[in-house]
Amino acid sequence: MRRVPGRRNYPTCCGPTEPRKNSNGRNPIQAYIWHLSAIPTEVGVTSIRREAFHDKSNNQQLRVNLDCLDEVRDRASDRIAEYQKKMTEYYNRRVRLRRLHVGDLVLRKVTTATRNSTQGKLGPTWEGPYRVTHYSRQGSYHLETLDGKALPRPWNIEHLKKYHQKV
Questions:
Q1: H/E segment holding residue 36
Q2: Fewer CB within 10 Å: C terminus or N terminus of the chain?
């Protein structure tokens, strides 16, 4: 292994003998030293912001801003509430309610729990038909088979679709 003063000493078989360079062509140490030696632009050329800064008026303006903070929060919460109201109205305009009546025939979506594993992905996605026996609350239906055997739990309307018999 070669020893070079001021550099990391890696074995020549395991890595570089100096730090990697950045996109600007300097290694991290050189970039840091260059950054320290650079003269900020504010020293030579002042900006309008620095010229117009007055410590007393700045503190006074900060106090005014803190006093108005509650009003700003109230306006922001009003805008959020208005936005949410508009989004709710837009959604409710476009939603289409589906209702089933007692006695309607429906198909039930096959879930992973009820799917026959031997059929694979080419198995049916809907099973049935089933008859609606009871409507408990909005979107929740109790079903029974055509033989009259009731299913153990209610099903949501998302997992049901109306069955149309061929004539």
A1: helix 28-37
A2: C
Give the model confidence (pLDDT) of 38-68 as tens digits: 556 556 667 777 777 788 888 888 888 888 8
H helices of 53-134, where? 55-67, 69-94
Q: Is the CB of residue 158 less than 8 Å from the CB of residue 139?
A: yes
| Whole-number Å distance between alpha carbons of 89 and 69 | 30
Is 10 in contact with 16 (CB distance < 8 Å)?
Answer: yes
CATH 2.30.30 holds for 105-162: yes
Question: Structural domain boundaries of the chain?
Answer: 52-94, 105-162
Tell if the pTM clears 0.90, that is, is over it. Answer: no
Q: Edge-to-edge, what's the strand order for the sheet holding 126-137?
A: 155-156, 140-145, 126-137, 105-109, 160-162
Report the C-alpha gap between 111 and 133 in whole angstroms: 21
